[in-house]
Amino acid sequence: MTAPPSLDTPPPHQSRKAEEVQAFGTVQHVGIGLSPDGRLYSCRRLNLLLADTQMLYALYKKHHWLMRGPTFHQLHLLLDRHAEQQSAIVDLLAERVQSLGGVAVGDPRHAAEMTRVPRPPDGVEEVPAMLSRLLEAHETILADARDAARRVADLGDVGSEDLIVSEVIRTGETHTWFLGEHLVDTPLTRA
Questions:
Q1: CA neighbor of 26 nearest in space, from 120, 131, 85, 100
Q2: Is 93 exposed, middle or buried (0-12, 13-18, 19+ CB in 10 A)?
C-alpha cells in the first residue's frame, strides 16, 4: 500500500521566470546536412505558412460556429473537418521548424502579427461571404506555399518542400475545391 502524500510537501513553483534560451528567427545547430543559412530561410518561410495556417484554422472554426441557412448541417460539418485538417498541418509545420533548429511561431498573438490572411469582421457575415473569405485565405496561402516549396527545394531542403507540397498545397487545393462548389449558383431544388 502506498503512503498518502505528505502535507509537508512544498507547493509547486508557479511564478518562475527565465531568459529566452533561443530567440525567434534564429536556428541552432542540428546535424541534418543543411547549411545554417538554408535552414534559417526554410524556417522563415515555414513560419509564415504556419502563421497563415493558424489564422486559417481559426477562420474555419469561427465560420463553423456561425454557419446558418439551408445548408447549415453540411457546411457546419465540412468546416469542422477542414479545421481539423488545418490543425494537423499547423502541428506538422511547427514540428518541421523545430526539426530544422528554429523556433516555431506558437503564440496566436505573434501569429496574428505575422499573418497575411486578412482579419474578418468580429460579427457574422452572410454564408457566401464567409466561404469567399476562406477561399481568399487559401489562395494567399497556396500562392506563398508554391513559391516557398520551389525556393526551399533550391536550397536542398527537400523535407520542407515535401511537407509544403504534400500537406499545405494538396490539402489547400482540396479544401478550395470543396468550398468553391458551395458557391456555384445552383438552386437547391428544381421546380
A1: 100
A2: buried
